[in-house]
From TrEMBL:
Comp. bias regions, Low complexity: 119-129
Annotated GO MF terms: methyltransferase activity
InterPro entries linked: Methyltransf_11, SAM-dependent_MTases_sf
Species in which this protein is naturally found: Streptomyces hirsutus
Gene Ontology biological process terms in this record: methylation
Taxonomic superkingdom: Bacteria
Protein name: Class I SAM-dependent methyltransferase
Domain (Methyltransferase type) ranges: 56-97
Region described as Disordered: 1-22, 105-133
EC number annotated for this UniProt entry: 2.1.1.-
The protein's enzyme class: transferase
Protein's UniProt keywords contain Mitochondrion: no
Record's keyword terms, sorted: Methyltransferase, Transferase
Alphabetized Gene3D superfamilies for the sequence: Vaccinia Virus protein VP39 (3.40.50.150)
Length: 299
């Protein structure tokens, strides 16, 4: 089964029980994260990521994309602010974890890209001790695989991360940005519209919007990057059943404003109804999607 979506950590307000962040992180890592594996593979193949590459993953989440790069021989550093997802990433990537692809040069940082060189308690090196210093070699690849262009304001957050990340790279380093494809080619767009409709009472909370054609180019230009190619990748969202689909989609955080405006029961119900057209006779759910990536180069 193919598989991710976008992650946004919005404050929990409104009705219903508090969001269980640990359960959501499990749903993300076990159900949703793998949805963008075809995107990761396409980018790594195009850039020939392998031994000798030093990769910085922005918004690395629970680390699946990092793990795939590490399995190709790259030295990887992941940065995020979700402690629950990072706990999974550490299990996957650090030597104390159980994954056979863990590498001694993998690093997981709870914080911003600048924390990879500022050090401090937010920075967890693969060895479990020490931090990165200013003498570390420059990153050759920066990835931002969390798709932008579906939430109002999500590009601003990525721009802030790039402002810290770009100075850590060498000349001509590849920076990869990802986003949703055209809504007419993304079946999941019809389900995500539920989030916008239910969250209507809470305007300005970062609800879903259709992707714009130049979202990625706009971010690259603002960061002072030079576009150097792009591509589209089919990333169908496949789930074992409707319940798994609902849990996976909720784990993205895209429905948090809808939950705040209504309640969790109402959101669950309306997502399930929106999934009916994509439910197959065997009970599985299948939604074809296309995602886009842009490769840009640092000055």
């Amino acid at each position: 089964m193919t598989p991710t979506l976008v992650r946004q950590h919005l404050p929990r307000t409104g009705h219903g029980p508090r969001v269980d962040r640990r359960a959501r992180a499990r749903d993300w890592s076990e159900i949703q994260e793998r949805m963008l594996v075809p995107l990761y593979e396409a980018v790594y193949e195009r850039l020939d990521v392998g031994s000798g590459a030093r990769l910085l993953g922005l918004g690395c989440g629970s680390g699946l994309a990092l793990l795939m790069a590490a399995s190709r021989g790259a030295a990887v550093t992941g940065v995020d602010t979700s402690s629950d997802r990072l706990a999974v990433a550490r299990e996957r990537l650090l030597p104390a974890g159980r994954d056979p692809h863990a590498r001694a040069d993998a690093r997981i940082v709870d914080g911003s890209p600048g924390d990879t060189v500022r050090g401090g308690t937010a920075d967890t090196a693969a060895s479990g001790t020490g931090t990165a210093g200013g003498d570390d070699p420059a990153y050759t690849v920066v990835t931002a695989f969390e798709p932008i262009g579906c939430l109002a304001g999500d590009a601003d957050g990525l721009s802030e991360q790039l402002a810290e990340a770009v100075p850590l790279t060498g000349h001509g380093a590849a920076v990869v940005l990802a986003g949703w494809g055209p809504p007419e080619r993304c079946a999941t767009a019809s389900v995500l519209r539920v989030a916008t409709r239910l969250a209507e009472p809470l305007r300005g909370t970062g609800t879903w919007r259709p992707a714009h054609r130049d979202d990625l180019e706009d971010v690259a230009r603002r960061a002072g990057l030079r576009p150097d190619g792009s591509g589209r990748v089919a990333c169908p969202f496949g789930y074992a059943d409707v319940d798994s689909a609902v849990r996976g989609l909720l784990s993205t955080g895209l429905f948090d404003p809808a939950i705040a405006a209504t309640d969790r029961i109402q959101v669950d119900k309306e997502i399930a109804e929106a999934l009916h057209p994509y439910e197959r006779q065997d009970g599985t759910v299948w939604m074809p999607n296309v995602f886009r990536y842009l490769i840009a180069r640092t000055p």
